């Protein structure tokens, strides 16, 4: 368990769990919370202005400036030509396509080798174009969920980030995690009430400077006399503010102007052009805090008695309506968190999801000596055998000490090339009467890993199966690899797969088996192994962290049910 988390993170994890009683199923509850966090959307509500102004703010949050947006709109309008012109263009395009197809067919018949080279060049060009296109900010996708008056924008680059916009914000007040209010320099101190509400709810508030004064009212000044229209709206706005201030003073919420201005201190007025950069730095923390508070609140409501029919709209109802979580996830929360030791306070959940970013996942390649683990290690890291950092390979026992290398496919993941089991170099440490054919046992001097890739050359061996059973019994995740598969005749590959599946089936094991050739990684199952491992690593990290934290708390925090007489 050494080095899996930094020392400061271990202290942060242990602090909120003091005086917590240990109960069964704790690790499963931790894993469920981490899996729910994986898909939890952060909802940002935009209010305070017109619908058009709110949508401009949503687009600015996505990092798209007004200049880029206007260029996109010009391209869209320019592409919309007249019907006659469009038909003519379509006819010309069809003729050009036919000519290109005929030319390509003739060219393929004349010289197939040249065509293959050209196809490869075209693929490289397309990949480069895709890479360049990914760097260009894209317009956020717009969906409608709540009603015709409320819209939701999905951030084009940050997953699980939704921006809600509505004129006045009345339809989005029940389901948001972060609130943004459009205002101006003259009006940003007029949001005393909403600042107090946000502090009571412990939700972040951002005051964003609107581009124009009329973005804050619902009647845009138009017509021949815009000055008169503007004056009418200005007078109406001031009158509403005056009435609001008088009502607050009569209720005793605001005693004087100094106290009201003090409430808005610390809420900085952010410019429209800088809101994307401000959020980019804070979104990870905002999402973790929002999830921790949400899971505590939703669990509390699920376990509380049913409220009367005339009560306010429940969190469960707004959550399902806004598609923040699904009915299946809601049922899972209700079933798993009957014991509320994990969801009784947000600080506990916050410590766990924060630790997930710093937790180190260890993936080890292991097998009997000479199985080809070092060659597979280099292939997974895309390292040449003679490159610096690559594992040494040879015809003798080359891997004497564990070799570690950062795995680029997943953040904070280490790939280990472990020394082979059954090394001849260990014979000097064995007694004369010990058996040379005893089943391999995981040596205690090897670094413990969370996930193991077990390697057996050509076919499954008894030692590999016993090692698999041993690791599975200790809760480890394993992948089975038959290495040096290029030595298997092509006609025998199907037979090897069938025989391997039958053996594992008889033993009650359901692990997938990958036939891999380190000399020819583009053949057989290497690419499938690499992609499967890449997709599964986030799950392995969550499961390993849940197990790690459970053991950590059991050792250092959880109360032991001792004899009460001994405590007196």
Summarize the structure.
The chain is α/β, with parallel strands linked by helices and 568 residues long. It contains 17 helices and 13 strands.
- Give unreliable regions as ranges: 129-137, 253-264, 429-437, 561-568
Average pLDDT score: 75
Task: Report the major sheet.
Answer: 7 strands, mixed
The number of helical runs is 17
Helical percentage: 40-55%
Strand content: 5-15%
**Secondary-structure-derived class:** alpha/beta
Description:
- This protein has 568 residues and is of the alpha/beta class.
- It has helices spanning 7-14, 26-38, 51-61, 66-79, 83-110, 112-135, 192-201, 226-251, 257-263, 275-303, 315-321, 327-336, 346-358, 373-380, 462-473, 493-506, 526-556, and strands spanning 42-47, 141-147, 150-154, 161-166, 178-183, 205-209, 269-270, 361-367, 403-406, 413-417, 451-457, 477-483, 513-515.
- The strands form two sheets. Strands 2-3-4-1-5-6-7 form a seven-stranded mixed beta sheet.
- β9 and β10 (413-417) form a beta hairpin.
- α2 crosses α17 (526-556) and α5 crosses α6.
């Amino acid at each position: 368990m050494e080095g899996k988390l930094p020392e400061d993170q271990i202290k942060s994890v242990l602090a909120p769990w003091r005086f917590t009683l240990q109960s069964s199923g704790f690790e499963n509850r931790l894993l469920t919370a981490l899996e729910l966090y994986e898909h939890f959307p952060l909802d940002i509500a935009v209010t305070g202005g017109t619908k058009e102004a709110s949508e401009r703010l949503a687009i600015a949050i996505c990092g798209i400036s007004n200049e880029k947006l206007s260029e996109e709109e010009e391209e869209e309008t320019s592409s919309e030509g007249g019907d006659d012109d469009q038909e003519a263009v379509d006819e010309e395009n069809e003729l050009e396509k036919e000519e290109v197809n005929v030319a390509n067919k003739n060219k393929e018949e004349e010289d197939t080798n040249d065509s293959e080279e050209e196809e490869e060049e075209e693929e490289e060009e397309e990949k480069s174009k895709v890479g360049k296109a990914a760097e260009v900010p894209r317009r956020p996708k717009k969906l409608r969920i709540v009603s015709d008056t409320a819209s939701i924008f999905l951030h084009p680059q940050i997953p699980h980030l939704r921006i809600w916009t509505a004129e006045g914000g009345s339809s989005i007040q029940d389901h948001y995690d972060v609130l943004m209010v459009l205002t101006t320099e003259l009006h940003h101190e007029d949001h005393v009430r909403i600042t107090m509400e946000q502090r009571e709810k412990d939700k972040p508030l951002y005051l964003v400077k609107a581009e124009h004064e009329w973005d804050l009212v619902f009647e845009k000044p138009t017509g021949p006399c815009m000055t008169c229209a503007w004056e009418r709206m200005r007078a109406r706005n001031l009158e509403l503010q005056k009435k609001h201030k008088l009502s607050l003073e009569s209720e005793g919420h605001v005693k004087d102007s100094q106290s009201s201005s003090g409430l808005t201190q610390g809420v900085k007025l952010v410019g429209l052009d800088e809101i994307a950069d401000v959020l980019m730095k804070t979104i990870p923390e905002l999402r973790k805090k929002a999830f921790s508070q949400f899971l505590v609140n939703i669990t509390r409501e699920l376990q509380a008695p049913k409220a009367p029919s005339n009560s306010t709209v429940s969190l469960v109802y707004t959550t399902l309506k806004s598609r923040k979580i699904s009915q299946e996830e809601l049922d899972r929360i209700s079933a798993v968190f009957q014991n509320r030791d994990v969801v009784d306070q947000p600080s506990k959940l916050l410590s766990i999801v924060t630790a997930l970013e710093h937790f180190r996942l260890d993936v080890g390649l292991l097998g009997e000596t000479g199985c080809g683990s070092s060659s597979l290690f280099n292939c997974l890291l895309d390292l040449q055998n003679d490159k610096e950092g690559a594992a040494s390979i040879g015809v003798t026992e080359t891997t004497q000490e564990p070799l570690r290398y950062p795995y680029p496919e997943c953040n904070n993941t280490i790939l280990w090339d472990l020394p082979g089991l059954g090394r001849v170099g260990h014979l000097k440490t064995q007694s004369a009467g010990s058996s040379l054919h005893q089943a391999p046992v995981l040596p205690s001097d090897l670094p413990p890993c969370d996930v193991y890739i077990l390697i057996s050359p050509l076919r499954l061996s008894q030692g590999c199966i016993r090692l698999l059973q041993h690791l599975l019994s200790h809760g480890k995740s394993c992948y089975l690899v038959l290495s040096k598969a290029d030595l298997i005749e092509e006609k025998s590959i199907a037979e090897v797969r069938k025989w391997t599946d039958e053996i594992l089936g008889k033993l009650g094991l359901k692990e997938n088996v990958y036939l891999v050739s380190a000399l020819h990684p583009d053949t057989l199952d290497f690419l499938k192994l690499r992609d499967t491992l890449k997709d599964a690593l986030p799950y392995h990290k969550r499961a390993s962290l849940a197990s790690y934290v459970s053991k950590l708390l059991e050792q250092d925090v959880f109360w032991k049910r001792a004899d009460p007489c001994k405590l007196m």
